[in-house]
């Protein structure tokens, strides 16, 4: 009995009335447009976010590359400057007896400065002089003393 009343109400009022039919199509059309506009907006926003992310990552990589280039160039220039230092030429070309102790001490100080300044890039520095008779070695984790004794040079 109640099912029959509902069926008659739907047939008489909703499906067969002109206003109900128009309202049904308008609501359907509005829902369809909202779904289409929402989908298009989502697609456009997603593409914009992807593009912005790509540009940001690209900029970050470029900045990091420039920073590392600058840092490595600076390290290279420091090492070239050290290799062109007259003190190094003296150490390489002179007999070990003719070299003053101050040159060894200055050399050690220069290596300490370079190692301290670039310790995140340079793991270690090894300078071998007089075929292994004197060695300067600096490592980031473990510092070893030069193979010569400062006390001997200070006493001389």
How would you explain this protein's 3D organization?
The chain is mainly α and 156 residues long. It has two domains: 2-64; 85-155, no CATH class. It is 71% helix and 8% strand. It has five helices and two strands. The protein has helices spanning 2-15, 18-83, 86-93, 101-117, 150-155; strands at 124-129, 134-139. It has a two-stranded antiparallel ribbon with strand order 1-2. Helix 3 (86-93) packs across helix 4 (101-117). The chain is rod-shaped, with a radius of gyration of 41 Å. It starts with a helix and ends with a helix.
- The count of helical stretches stands at 5
Regions with little confidence, pLDDT below 50 for 5+ residues: none
How are strands sequenced across the largest beta sheet?
1-2
Residues in helices, as a percent range: over 70%
Note the main attributes of this structure.
156 residues; 2 domains; 5 helices; 71% helix
């Amino acid at each position: 009995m109640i099912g029959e009343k509902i069926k008659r109400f739907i047939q008489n009022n909703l499906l067969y009335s002109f206003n109900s039919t128009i309202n049904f199509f308008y609501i359907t059309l509005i829902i369809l447009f909202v779904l289409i506009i929402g989908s298009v907006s989502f697609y456009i926003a997603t593409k914009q976010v992807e593009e912005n992310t790509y540009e940001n990552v690209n900029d970050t990589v470029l900045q990091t590359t420039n920073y590392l280039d600058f840092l490595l160039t600076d390290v290279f220039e420091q090492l070239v400057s050290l290799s062109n230092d007259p003190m190094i030429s003296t150490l390489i070309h002179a007999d070990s007896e003719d070299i003053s102790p101050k040159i060894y001490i200055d050399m050690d100080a220069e290596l300490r400065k370079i190692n301290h300044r670039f310790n995140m890039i340079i793991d270690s520095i090894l300078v071998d002089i007089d075929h292994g008779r004197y060695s300067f070695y600096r490592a980031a984790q473990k510092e070893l003393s030069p193979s010569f004794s400062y006390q001997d040079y200070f006493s001389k």
